Structure formats: structure tokens, C-alpha cells
Amino acid sequence: DAGVTQSPTHLIKTRGQHVTLRCSPISGHKSVSWYQQVLGQGPQFIFQYYEKEERGRGNFPDRFSARQFPNYSSELNVNALLLGDSALYLCASSSILTGDSKTHNEQFFGPGTRLTVL
Amino acid sequence: AQKVTQAQTEISVVEKEDVTLDCVYETRDTTYYLFWYKQPPSGELVFLIRRNSFDEQNEISGRYSWNFQKSTSSFNFTITASQVVDSAVYFCALSELTQGGSEKLVFGKGTKLTVNP
Q1: Is A58 part of the contact surface with chain B (CB cutoff 8 Å)?
Q2: In which band, very low, low, confident or very high, does the pLDDT at A101 lie, cut at 50, 70 and 90?
Q3: A84 CB-contact burial (10 Å; exposed 0-12 / middle 13-18 / buried 19+)
Q4: What is the CA radius of gyration of chain B?
């Protein structure tokens, strides 16, 4: 089975532009999360969508937005790009919303999109 | 707020040495989950383990082992007989429930492990 896929792999933009990143979850997974990983840091949570609804939002400005489609794929949009938005953007999918002591909520990560803002 | 600290920024060992990666976490939740992920140079995060706060038994998987100690809020990761292929950045993470009821991961800054031949 295919894993989480993301497109594009790499992207170069200039300040002020907008960008759309795409993610396709593992087949059957209904939850998609987005993370931003700046060089030398751990990933930081941006959004989580489950069944097409936003269920979690991290501490990011309104320039960041996302949506999930009926086929559970997702887009992350970033407007008015800043140099500081340069990062690896990771998408993760999971089959459920939250786990418990018996149910694993393993998040499977895609290869990421490396965004460079000049 | 949840916090994960990986004090070791970089570790370098020679092949076949054992190496332990430290992870200390902070949380006010009584139920929580801890994770370790591996990130090779390709960038993709590879899931290694998930443990819940009620299960303090140590776990071993091949050359990998994890030591969870609730009393010291630590979840350390040991690689026995390290190999060059173990070279990667390793992240410890803690789950946190969002207001929307979802489960997000709070990551540490990672430890870069280099295994030299």
C-alpha cells in the first residue's frame, strides 16, 4: 500500500507570494495533520483535520490555512510568504482522531515538501 | 504546556558501540503518550515506538530498547551495537490533546546521531 504522499517535493518562492502544498493520506485514513520543521528544530504542529473538519490548530498566524477534501486529501496554504516560512512541511495521516490505552493512534509521516523563500 | 527536552544535540559513536539518547518531558496530563521517531537524511519521519503513561515496562525491539521512567519523566532510547545505517536525527515526542479533541505531537529538538565505521 502507498504511504503518505506529498507534492511538490521542493518549492522555491519569493517573499510575498503564496504557496499551496498537497498531501494524500494512507488509504482509509481520515485524519491529516500538518507540521512545520525549521532547520535544526523538531516539527511544530500547524493543523489537524479529521473528516474534513479542523480539529486542531497550532500557534501559527492566519496566513496559514488548510482544508481537507472528501477523499481525505489535504492542502496547506500559506499567504504573504516570509523568509521565516522556509522549512520542511510534513504531513501525517492517522486512522483515528485520538488513541487510548488499547488503540494506537500512530501518525504516519510523508516525505515532506521543502519550501525555500527567497 | 507540554514540553520535550532532548539535551544531546549531537552524538558521534563508532560502529558497534551502544548509545543512549535522552528524553525528558513535562506534562500535566495523567494520561499521555510518548513517541520516538527517526529522521534519516531523506527527511521522512519514521515511527519507532509509542508508549502510554500507564505502561512503564521497558520495551526491546531487536537492537532498540526504551526505558520509560515516570518518576523522572524520562523516556530514553538505547541502540545496542550501533550500525552506520542508524545515523539519523532522532526525535522524542509527547502527545497533547487539542481543544478540538485531536491528538497533536509535541517534539523535542532532536538528537543527531552519527555512527562512524
Answers
A1: yes
A2: very low
A3: exposed
A4: 14
The answer to whether the Cα torsion of A38, A10, A46, B34 is positive or negative is negative
Average pLDDT of the residues in A17-45: 95
- Alpha carbon of B107 to those of A18, A35, A77: distances in Å? 27, 10, 23
Does the pLDDT of residue A78 top 70, yes or no? Answer: yes
Sign of the torsion angle spanned by Cα atoms A25, A29, A34, A39: negative
Cell of B26: 513535562
What are the φ/ψ torsions at residue A82 (nearest 5 degrees)? -115, 160
* Pairing assessment for the beta strands A113-117 and A53-57 based on DSSP bridges: unpaired
pLDDT confidence tier of residue A105, bands split at 50, 70 and 90: low
At A97 the pLDDT is 55
> B45, A90: Cβ pair inside 8 Å?
yes
Identify the closest residue of chain A to B103 by CA–CA distance: A98
Phi-psi map region of B43: left, alpha, beta (phi>0 left; psi -120 to 50 alpha): left
**Inter-chain residue contact B54 with A41, CB threshold 8 Å:** no
- Judged on CB neighbours under 10 Å (0-12, 13-18, 19+), A43 is buried
